[in-house]
Amino acid sequence: MLKKQQLYHQLKNDIQQLHWQPGIVLTQQQLSAHYGVSRIVVRDVQQQLLNEGWLTTHGKAGMQVPPFNADEADELAMLRLQLEPLALKLAAPTLSFTLLGQAEDVLLTLSSTPELSPYQRGELNWQFHRLLYQSCNKPHLLGLLEKLHQQVSRYLGYQDQTQSYTQTSATEHQQLLTLLRRGDTEGACAVLTEHIATANTKLVSYLRNK
How far apart are CA 170 and CA 155, in angstroms? Predict the structure, then answer.
């Protein structure tokens, strides 16, 4: 039987893989039977995913997988564009080669493990970015970015699947590392800004025209 944390990861993965399609209503009874867990475990996981924006309430008995929304994607990117370059700028002066090496290891895992699910790739993507930001020594800023990532990751996984954006993202991540190793903070922040903005433009355009 799946435990709560296992169900949390499995349900997020299944939503990202579109096993549970956007718009579908999921009841505790349905998920309990499908995953072989108690309704108490399902309730706790549903509440966690509700807080993270992966589910929305629907009536008295269910929660819905929300549709992908161009306006929401655009707003999330707007927040990223304000917060992530700030975090990188603050972190860069004390960003050690050890942290950069760890970030490169994450990129190596992403590039050498094609069987990773979209959910796993999203988690590694955030791990890469967090390694670059963590030495900013601003715990509230990092906390905001952590919460933002939980909402953004659903869209990033969707973009990887629908627009084959993985290779473009990998190239830009490598450019970030190169610039940071050179001590070019301004250049790295510019690449990060372009990285977020370009991906968002493509995603929003796709969502509005599909």
Answer: 17
Across the range 93-108, mean pLDDT stands at: 95
Query: What strands lie across the sheet with 25-27, from one edge to the other?
Result: 25-27, 62-64, 56-58
> By C-alpha distance, which of 76, 63, 59, 2 is closest to 33?
2
Q: Give the DSSP per-residue string, 151-162.
A: HHHHHHHHHHHH
Binning pLDDT at 50, 70 and 90, where does residue 126 land? very high
Within the chain, strands assigned E span: 25-27, 56-58, 62-64
Name the residue among 96, 95, 194, 84 with its Cα closest to residue 149.
Answer: 84
Q: Which amino acid is at 182?
A: R
Taken in order of first residue, the domains within the chain and their CATH numbers are 4-64 (1.10.10.10), 70-209 (1.20.120.530)
